Structures are given as C-alpha cells and as structure tokens.
Amino acid sequence: AQSVTQLDSQVPVFEEAPVELRCNYSSSVSVYLFWYVQYPNQGLQLLLKYLSGSTLVESINGFEAEFNKSQTSFHLRKPSVHISDTAEYFCAVSEVGGGFKTIFGAGTRLFVKA
Amino acid sequence: EAGVTQFPSHSVIEKGQTVTLRCDPISGHDNLYWYRRVMGKEIKFLLHFVKESKQDESGMPNNRFLAERTGGTYSTLKVQPAELEDSGVYFCASSQVGVLRTEAFFGQGTRLTVV
C-alpha cells in the first residue's frame, strides 16, 4: 500500500519569494509521482509528473520537483511565486504497472500575498 | 479534445434524498475512477472501472453508494439515501489502459452538500 504525506497544510508567502511544498511518500513498490493543482473554483489539473529518467521535472509555469528515492520525497519548488499561483497543491502517487488508483496527500494551500 | 466532464457542478439535497452524479470520461479512455474529498481531508479513491467492469471498489464507503458504467462510456454514482457525512467534492478521472497510462485526467468535480 502507498501513502503520501504533505507536511504543510498551509503555506503563506510573499509575491516573488521562493517556495517549497514538501511531500513524502511511502510505498513498497515503484511508483509514479505527481503534483496536481486546484485553483479556486476549478478542477484538479496535473502540474508535473515523474515517471522515470531525470529526477528533476519541471512544469511550464516555473515549478519544479525533484524525486529523491533515498528520502522518498518529491518536494515542489518555485524560485519566485506570483499571486496567480495561489491554489491548493496535491502530491500523489500511483503504482507502476498496476493498481491504477492514485493516492493523494491531504493538500497544501499556497497563499501568495502582495 | 474535450476533457473529463462532470454533472452537476453543485448539488444541494436534503438528508434521505437520492442524488446521481454523472461523469463523462475522455473519449477512448477505458479507465474511469471516482474519488471523493470530504472537507479539509485528502482526496480518497472510491472505485475504478475498466470499461464497464468494476476493477476495484475497495474505497466505496458503504452500500448507499452505487456506481455504474453501462456500455463502458459515461459513469454514474448514486447516493441513496444521502447522509450528512456524504457532503464533499466528488471527482471523476479517466486514463488510457496499459503502457499508455501514466496519468489520470480529472474533471471539475461535483460539490455535494447534504443538509
């Protein structure tokens, strides 16, 4: 079985400051790793994913996440946030090659202040 | 290409009533999943269809919940009778089968409020 822990339920940050949203997972098998984002009044959108290969993955809007197998972490970072990044972010895992269901963390609310 | 669509977007019903949520997956996606997020908690898996067959329904909370996917296209999730604790956001997702499956695409969700 897999589990996902997002260590911060809320993260307030000023605009243009860097941010890191932490995610740790537990799994006895290989997993895919994802970050989803939910903007206010919208559905879940995939932000980025790690499937294999390079451990550093990037999104089109400047976020990046690094898969660290030894620490079982997949933290999300952005060097300079915008007001428009205010949203809830979910870390998730899915078992490679089977199972198909996605296990989510509890979510982290990112508040970007002017 | 249309994404995953869910209907209705919001529903407010009284305790004891019945509600049916609908999900239309992306065309060609044989995998269909239902998830639920109760306020403030994590998004939890409810069940998984492959075409019209239930592959995994381990997350269904009790027998008041009934999911169907007749014909392997759209799916419905019926709650009968609804209880207060059923309130939350119900998400549907779909994905391709096999080696092409690397992520699920989510709908906007249905916000269910039971009063």
User: Could you state the order of secondary-structure elements of chain A as H and E?
Assistant: EEEEEEEEEEEE
Strand content of chain A: over 45%
Roughly how many Å apart are the termini of chain A?
41 Å
Work out the helicity level of chain B: under 10%
Structural class of chain A: mainly beta
Of all chain pairs, the largest interface belongs to:
A-B, 22 and 24 residues
For the record, give the distance between the C-alpha atoms at the N and C termini of chain B, rounded to a whole number. Answer: 37 Å
Using the CA coordinates, give the radius of gyration of chain B: 13 Å
Shape of chain A: globular
Uncertain residue ranges of chain A:
none
Q: Tally the helices of chain A.
A: 0
Task: Characterize the biggest β-sheet of chain B.
Answer: 7 strands, mixed
TL;DR of this structure?
The complex is a heterodimer of chains A (114) and B (115). Chain A has strands spanning 3-6, 10-14, 19-21, 23-26, 31-38, 44-50, 56-58, 64-68, 73-78, 87-95, 102-104, 108-113.
Describe this structure in words.
The complex is a heterodimer of chains A (114) and B (115). Chain A is mostly beta strands and 114 residues long. Chain A is built from no helices and twelve strands. Chain A has strands at residues 3-6, 10-14, 19-21, 23-26, 31-38, 44-50, 56-58, 64-68, 73-78, 87-95, 102-104, 108-113. In chain A, strands 2, 5, 6, 10, 11 and 12 form a six-stranded mixed beta sheet that branches. In chain A, a hairpin with a 5-residue loop joins strand 5 (31-38) and strand 6 (44-50). Chain A is globular. Chain A starts with a strand and ends with a strand. The model of chain A has no long low-confidence stretch (mean pLDDT 90). Chain B has 115 residues and is mainly β. Chain B is built from no helices and eleven strands. Chain B has strands at 5-7, 10-13, 19-24, 31-37, 43-50, 53-56, 65-68, 75-79, 88-95, 105-106, 110-114. In chain B, the strands form two sheets. In chain B, strands 2, 4, 5, 6, 9, 10 and 11 form a seven-stranded mixed beta sheet that branches. Chain B has a four-stranded antiparallel beta sheet with strand order 1-3-8-7, with no helix packed on it. Chain B is globular. The N and C termini of chain B lie far apart (37 Å). The model of chain B has no long low-confidence stretch (mean pLDDT 92). The A-B interface holds A 4, 32, 34, 36, 42-46, 49, 51, 90, 94, 99-107 and B 31, 33, 35, 41-45, 48, 55-56, 59, 91, 93, 95, 101-109.
